[in-house]
Automatic annotation (TrEMBL):
This is Ribosome-recycling factor, mitochondrial. Belongs to the RRF family. The gene is MRRF. One of its GO terms (cellular component) is mitochondrion. InterPro entries: Ribosome_recyc_fac (IPR002661), Ribosome_recyc_fac_dom (IPR023584), RRF_sf (IPR036191). GO terms for biological process: translation. It is found in: Mitochondrion. Keywords: Mitochondrion, Protein biosynthesis, Transit peptide. It comes from Carlito syrichta. Pfam families: RRF (PF01765). It comes from the Eukaryota. Residues 99-261 form the Ribosome recycling factor domain.
């Protein structure tokens, strides 16, 4: 059942068009700014094009059961004084891009020198990428060498970072030279990489939940000056954006899982 939120003054010439419109669902909801005379401030209200109420038949209810609810598509410019939805969208997309980057750089069947480049090493100057403090080379198809001669004081930290990288690597050290044997591609190794992919996806979902929570908290601050209908619409928009991103995260995990298992 769709409820119209704005009354329409029916005049005789438009009466027939109005009756015809009653049989059509409202496809989208627009946001409109109205002026509150008594308190002299602008208020955001949710308005539909027509005051339409639909009563679903049993067949329609059965058909719609299990289907996703109607989507909203708010014009971000109309609510920018309440919340910056473009910024929220960018933050959610950055979570997605970070996971894709993680999959591409660290979760590969064949470990290569490039896989070690961006391993974060904790140093006295903060976190630095391994390739910034060492020279990484391929000694053989089974061995990668990490030369720490330029930053010998970071050798221990580099070894720790490689071990905790989630790539199932067990480095060995000889002075300032770190030897990294490449794991054999076994079924066990593949399954371990899939497990890591799932863990990284769950971490990405945690980051996404934080973005959603922060957006909802920002929205709550405007409840005193914005109508409840508008708040609900924006909340639905934010939840819809988060759900879309979760679906995208799951899709990339599915693709990566197939790739890793072969």
């Amino acid at each position: 059942m769709a409820l119209g939120l704005k009354c329409l003054r029916i005049v005789h010439p438009a009466f027939r068009n109005y009756l015809a419109a009653l049989t059509r669902p409202v496809s989208e909801v627009n946001l409109k700014i109205v002026s509150e005379r008594q308190h002299d401030y602008s208020q955001y209200m949710a308005c539909s094009a027509l005051p339409i109420r639909h009563f679903a038949t049993k067949k329609a209810k059965a058909k719609g059961k299990g289907q996703s609810q109607s989507r909203v598509n708010i014009n971000t410019a109309l609510v920018e004084d309440i919340i910056n939805l473009k910024e929220v969208d960018e933050e959610m997309k950055s979570v997605m891009e970070a996971l894709k980057d993680n999959f591409n750089k660290t979760l590969n069947i064949r470990t290569s020198p490039g896989s070690l480049d961006h391993i974060a090493v904790v140093t006295a100057d903060g976190k630095l990428a391994l390739n910034q403090i060492s020279q990484i080379s391929m000694k053989s198809p089974q061995l990668i060498l990490v030369n720490m001669a330029s930053f010998p004081e970071c050798t221990a930290a580099a070894i720790k970072a490689i071990r905790e990288s989630g790539m199932n690597l067990n480095p060995e050290v000889e002075g300032t030279l770190i030897r990294v044997p490449i794991p054999k591609v076994t079924r066990e190794h593949r399954e371990m990489l899939v497990k890591l992919a799932k863990q990284n996806t769950n971490k990405a979902k945690d980051s996404l939940r934080r973005v959603r929570t922060n957006a909802m908290n920002t929205l709550k601050k405007s409840k005193d000056k914005v109508s409840e209908d508008t708040i609900r619409l924006i909340e639905k928009q934010i939840s819809q954006m988060a759900d879309d991103t979760v679906a995208e995260l799951d899709r990339h995990l599915e693709v990566k899982t197939k790739e890793l298992l072969g």
